[in-house]
Amino acid sequence: MTVGLLFALQAPADSGLRSSEMFSAVPRLAAMAEEQGFGSMFFTEHHGSDLNEVPSPLVVSAAAAAVTSRIRIGSAVALPAFYNPVKFAEDVTTLDNVSNGRVTVGVGMGYRQEEFDRFGVNAKLKVSHLVETVEILRRASTGEVFDFAGRVHKLQGVKVRPPAVQPVLPIWMGAQKRPGLTRAGEMGLTLPLSGAPIPIAARQRQIYLDALRRSGRGEQDVELPIVRECFCAATDDEAWDYAAPYLSILFAEYRQFMKLPSVNADGSYQADSDASTADYGSLREFGRDRMLIGSPDTLVAEFERHQQLLPCDHWVLRMHFPGMPIDGLTDSMKLFASEVLPSIVVPTAN
Predict the structure, then answer these.
(1) pTM (two decimals)
(2) Are 82 and 48 in contact (CB under 8 A)?
(3) CB-based contacts of 310: which residues, under 8 Å, 6+ apart?
(4) CA distance 241 to 151
């Protein structure tokens, strides 16, 4: 069992939290995460976000890699449509050398049309960008010299130096819908489940595993990760009271691009023309089966329940939400590490 952290480093302009404050804290947070027993550290990618989210996950990953020696480092997820695939491969292999073989690369198609417009990329080709970049990365990271002819990329004499330290780079692919879930399985990539409540996530995994088996692979060939929002405080009420205002900002950002209901600062939902007509009630109720927020005892119980219903071997926890002070994040990390991690991670023998 690996328990890691996901960071978007979001600092809304009106929050009083500066991006320089968040980004420059990465080395300190990485060192703290490793010392506390977390096993991985991932960074998101978005461009032109009003929340000032990370646009360059591999750059900030290098800052984390430089002050750690054990935890895995990577993207969750990078968006290949906005990269030259050879340069992307070079950046990944460089990071793998900086970290001495600790990179996990998460990739995704992208879903925000305005990002494609800013880069002048045809969004109708995003599947091709994703699939071709993964193939180029796989081959280039080994040091192989090769030509490549795809729908969007035609390359000659590709040679990436230095090659990756790892003989086979771990690659994750973000997906939510059946075509993407199937694609991840057929390509033999790891699927990080994210966002969906347990019953839906279980169905997503089954679609993925069916495709994985059709490709001639099995569960033993991949990790089974899940990404969850998480916050830990002394009591359930304290955890929700502290996290809800920042979660509301996160959901407001998502609503610009997805069919999600509005969330008030107190965690209650607003009904409007874009929202589902279902009665979601409070954010706290909506968070059940989707988030891990509460006291240490509650989180231990929730991890056990999740594991019974949806077994995972790599948890990636998002503990920082837009505008949250860094002290709030570190307090949650410390309490989680001291009171929850020992109950859910079995130490390995030296």
Answers:
(1) 0.91
(2) no
(3) 193, 198, 201, 202, 205, 226
(4) 50
